[in-house]
Structures are given as structure tokens and as C-alpha cells.
Amino acid sequence: MGPSESPTAHPENQEGRPKRLARRPRTRRCLLKGCDQSFLPRQSNQRYCSTECQKAARKWSRWKAQQRYRATKSGKAKRTDQSRRYRERVKSRKPTAPEADNETARVITPEDFFRSFLRPARLLRGVRTPATKSLAALLLARLPPRHGARPRKGAPLEAGADLKP
Hints:
Number of helices: 5
Structural class: mainly alpha
Number of strands: 2
Helix content: 25-40%
Shape: elongated
Strand order of the largest sheet: 1-2
Largest sheet: 2 strands, antiparallel
């Protein structure tokens, strides 16, 4: 064989040219619907920005494949058979029997049970019921007084409103 006919193939002819650096890939958008995040791919065929997006895309792909299969004639037949078997299983289940209590019902007489919670009458004489406040007095208690808000100092805001039904 003779020498190659291309004069640029020899290394001595290549000395004047600068060496080309490896090209960095461009930023891409994540292909997962709803993500649209820009990322720098580490591999040439990388389509998703993260492993979470990749897992979500794979999950959606499996779901879509299942939908396509169920739309076919054989897919529909298998699904109806599966539903029929489930209905048969549910029918054949034995109804749960209520648990039988071996113990007799324990009856507590009201006078014995509540007697320990009752107070003697002599202690109740000292207990007073608090005075009822009007609804406006309760709601407006923390508002600072303004000019013309009250007719005089200490006058009641409202008469007749009762918080207790």
C-alpha cells in the first residue's frame, strides 16, 4: 500500500491548529409535565432533571400502558373476569359472628355511683353564679375608648343582651 492521499492526515500538518475541547451539553427542560425545570444533563439521553421526576414519569408510563391495555378486547375480558372473581369471593365470605359475652351485664345503681361526686349542701351555699355580661361588653372590652364612644365613664354599653341562653 502506498501513502494516503490526504495531506492533512499526517501529524506534522496538524501542528498549527488548536485542539478542540469537548463540547458541554446545553441546558434542557425537564420533560415531566408540570416540572419544566432547566437542568444540565450528565448524559446525552437524560430527559428528566432528578430521580423523583424520573420515577414519576415511569409511574405515569405504567399507568398509561395499563389504560391502553384495558381498552383492548382481551384487556376488557380479563378485567371483567377479575371483577367476577372478586364478587364471588365477597359472597363466599362468612359473616362475622358477634362476640358472645360470657360475663353478665354489670348494673350500677345511680345513688351509689354518683354519691361520691356530689357535694354536701352546706358547701354549695358559698358558691355564687357569676353575673352575666352583655355580648357587646364582651366583644368590645379590649377596644380603647374613643371620643363619643360612651355617654359617660362607667356607663353600660348595652342593656338586655345575655350570653347565656
